[in-house]
Automatic annotation (TrEMBL):
GO MF annotations, alphabetized: linear primary-alkylsulfatase activity; metal ion binding; protein dimerization activity
Domain Metallo-beta-lactamase residues, every copy: 111-333
Keywords, ordered alphabetically: Hydrolase, Metal-binding, Zinc
Family: Belongs to the metallo-beta-lactamase superfamily. Type III sulfatase family.
Record-linked InterPro entries: Alkyl/aryl-sulf_dimr_sf, Alkyl_sulf_C, Alkyl_sulf_dimr, Bact_Alkyl/Aryl-Sulfatase, Bds1/SdsA1_MBL-fold, Metallo-B-lactamas, RibonucZ/Hydroxyglut_hydro, SCP2_sterol-bd_dom_sf
EC class (word): hydrolase
Pfam families: Alkyl_sulf_C, Alkyl_sulf_dimr, Lactamase_B
Necessary cofactors: Zn(2+)
Domain of life: Bacteria
SMART domains the record matches: Lactamase_B
EC assignment: 3.1.6.21
The protein's name: Linear primary-alkylsulfatase
Xref: PANTHER family: ALKYL/ARYL-SULFATASE, ALKYL_ARYL-SULFATASE BDS1
Amino acid sequence: MNDPQTDPRKLPKDAHPAVAASNAAMLAALPFEDRQDYEDASRGFIETLPDATVTNAQGRVVWTLKPYGFLSSDSAPPTVNPSLWRQSQLNMNHGLFEVCDRVYQVRGLDIANMTLIEGDTGVIAVDTLTSTEGARAGLELYFKHRGRRPVTAVIYTHTHTDHWGGARGVLSDEDISSGRVPIIAPNLFMEFAVSENVIAGNAMLRRAQYQFGPFIPRGARGQVDCGLGKSMAAGTVALVAPTDLVMATGDRRVIDGLEFVFQMAPESEAPAEFHFYLPQLKVLNMAENATHNFHNLLPFRGSEVRNALAWSGYLSEALQMWGDDAEVLVGQHHWPVWGKARVQTHLKQQRDLYKFVHDQTLRMINHGMTASEIAEVIRMPESLEGAWHTRGYYGHVRHNVKAIYQRTLGWYDSNPAHLDPLPPVALGKKLLAYMGGAERVLAKAQDDFAAGEFRIVAEVLNHVVFAEPGNEAARLLLADTYEQLGYASESATWRNAYLFGAQELRQGMPKVPSRSPISNDTVRALRTGQLFEYLGVRLNGPKAEGKTIVLNWEFTDSGERFVLNLENCALTHMNGRHAANADATLMLGRKTFNELVLQTSTMSDALKAGKVRATGDASRFDELMTLMDDFERMFEIVEPRTRPDPA
């Protein structure tokens, strides 16, 4: 009875009557008779791979849509919000599609799209998916129908991995080493592509499990979609650095006979992003800033809060620059929009979506309302509420307004009670004592669960679980509660978060092999100063109490000079200088430094191998590395941490 795989108490449940009623009400409220998106998502279909299955060289499946066959049913089951079911069905379209003359897309072989544009002599690949295997499979499918031709350029529209990770699937080693194929990206691409997920990368990876649901079984009671696409791809990821950076709006390139006009869009969906227009083809590519859903202003995995006001402004600028001419709008997720009038409408509604939510959030902030109060009352205008591409499948309005609040005012709502609250375990124990103990709380929670009052049940039982993590009755009821909240969620990311929380309460954390907190490729791509910053994040402050270490660095291949200073339990560095009082001066190549950071080599070993020349006491670096924390890939989220606090 205790096996979570067979214990009926720990298995997914049916939809509660209140959830079934809520989902039925949404089915009645939205224009499901509008089938335009279904026509657009399948328009131009040429061919696909069976079940969109992609394997690596060892035969391991790195991407497949086979587990999503249950989405073939026309009607959503009570356990899935019908609006999300619709989006999940649309994201099942996969294969090679013709967009218009000379423009093709590979869709559904990854969460993102690869757009292929035919130049005069070859093909230009726009975004290369997440993995080498997926990009190669998509390009081969294109070659099968359009003939084998050289890749004449690669374009990265922005810095997220699903848009550049598969570059080696479209570029050969010779293409890369010779520089024959230009790789074009927005300014500051490398800085953000490698840094955005490094400093807090370990926590982001764990939190992303809640956002995307990779460990949730696919099915009507499980993971159905991610909003932007089905899921994140596995496979081989490698960063190939751009060779040409676009610096300003209006910059132009002639690539294989086609003119590209670029528009910069920093601090929108990514910190470095651009759009571009093809005047000869009248095709506008909006990267990931005008997709078929309301996007995230703050993803659950974590990031810097995105700028809704600037985002709206870029859409407005694109309308001004090309709205009178563009006949096709493509994005690097979802399906295109055809026809000048429809392109204009799509861009206007997306523009006004971000502007409306930004301005109304600020309006209510200035009335003294808090983030949760604003989320509770904000309502979309009817013209946006009824537009399918503004629905919150990925970034729901209820959490996007909180992101805007955070970007504007920060986490603190100015109520002194919230200035220094107790941490979860201490708070849970105190509240449980105030409420008369777990038994009384559970009895009341059961009543509220029966009445469909899931939000308050989740709030209260979360405190019980943090106060008494071994209280199985509380864990199971909280899991059942999260599950019902997931079933009712229109947002795929909300559904994934709720269902994964339920799964972990019932079954514990997935058993995932540990791995290095930073990859070889990432270390190679980071600037030297960024690697010093990464070491600073790993430094255990209490262990460093009272220690002072000063190291000079001289990189023999790049000519860089640094001084690295440990003092006051903080690790700092200065570029372009050495310290007179250094414990040691270390002369080495960047490759050797990478090995030291990855801890595949010690300073002692590197000195013996002749990879480092040193004056002074080089062992101080190995001493510094003993002060570094290693990060566990998995840590508790819906229950207290079992390991002691690292402070």
